[in-house]
Write a sequence for this structure.
């Protein structure tokens, strides 16, 4: 990544993190409930209601809350996998069920589910992924949290020829106009953004 692109992305990430920090608990609760409705509807479209496996993550304040979405998918009979950070910016996966214990990650400032870890091979059984982002533009360019874990994951999936649907979870204000986020040749564009207003297919000419 060029220094200019790196600095631009860092600036966008910092601005949106500050905006998230100013979001109150009631706003996050409302957003979380709406994300659950729209995310579950997308899952229904993808699977026709057949019990399937979805990868998600635990979004905690000030991120968009994802626990309501995870819980709703589970209520509808789906299997949920949550990520665990590993060395080398790799992710492994652990099954989530209500009441599962969460522990602090050894490698990133996040909470992770305790339990047996599954490697990338589990992706062959996954219907779709819900991934974190700090911002997404309408061209489908994404800024993550800065750790690079999902960049590595998406590159690995593409390298294995696994075309799994995925959506970045963001607040409405984090869906930016086309061209807002610098793109590098190795970046993989996000095909959809899940917001509290609904699922937005990308690239979006709006």
């Amino acid at each position: 990544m060029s220094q200019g692109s790196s600095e631009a992305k860092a600036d966008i990430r910092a601005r949106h993190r500050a905006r998230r920090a100013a979001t109150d608990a009631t706003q996050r609760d409302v957003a979380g409930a709406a994300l659950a409705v729209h995310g579950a509807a997308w899952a229904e479209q993808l699977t026709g209601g057949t019990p399937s496996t979805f990868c998600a993550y635990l979004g905690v304040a000030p991120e968009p809350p994802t626990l309501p979405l995870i819980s709703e998918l589970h209520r509808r009979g789906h299997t949920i996998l949550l990520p665990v950070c590993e060395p080398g910016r790799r992710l492994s996966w652990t099954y989530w069920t209500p009441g599962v214990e969460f522990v602090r990650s050894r490698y990133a400032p996040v909470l992770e589910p305790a339990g047996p870890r599954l490697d990338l091979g589990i992706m062959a059984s996954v219907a779709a992924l819900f991934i974190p982002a700090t911002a997404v533009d309408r061209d489908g360019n994404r800024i993550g949290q800065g750790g690079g874990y999902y960049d590595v994951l998406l590159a690995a999936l593409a390298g294995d020829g696994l075309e799994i649907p995925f959506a970045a979870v963001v607040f409405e204000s984090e869906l930016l106009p086309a061209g807002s986020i610098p793109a590098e040749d190795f970046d993989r564009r996000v095909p959809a953004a899940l917001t509290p207003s609904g699922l937005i297919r990308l690239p979006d000419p709006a």
